[in-house]
Amino acid sequence: MAAHVPPVADERESLIAYLDQQRDAFATVAFGLTEEQIRLAPTAGTLSIGGLVKHVTTCERGWTERMAAAPEAPAPPDRSVEEQATAWGEDFRVTDGDTLESLLAALAAQGDVTREVLRSADLAAPVPVPRDAPWFPHDVEAWSVRWVAMHLVEELARHAGHADIVRETIDGATMYELVAAREGWPETPWLKPWRPASATLA
Fold this sequence. Notes:
The chain starts with 10 loop residues before the first helix and ends with a helix. Helix content is 53%, strand content 3%. Strands 1-2 form a two-stranded antiparallel sheet. The protein is mainly α.
């Protein structure tokens, strides 16, 4: 995906295109990292690139299930509220079985599902507000599918920004340098595509 969303014709296409762009940002921010580097948490917090990719996949899955089920609520989770509370934050943890390839593949696969749901969903359909966390409003009964899709853009963009900071802390790489390297942009006086440190020193 280029640095900008291509022209769009309508609201539905806009929602899909901007979600695609924000999702693609995670492939860019992880470009060139090693399996060890995706596990690093180099800032004052605990966020890692791999953990952020894993979390946004889980987050997108949950909201897409709600859009797909509208106007009904999705099927209840298999785990109890207590079990869910105990497992809170697990989707930010990169396990021994996770790899950069598997994490990005899971995110891309979820993108396919979200895209398919948004292509056919009634954007005005009500999505019942969840009641299982304190940050959900108690004075709103339902959002629309379009609201949830815009919220997903917000969620992905916010965490893509987190990932940008983590990546720059790891090796100094910034977004446009990484996009340039990933897409093969020519070097200019003001923008040099990212290269691994070993290649830079060679």
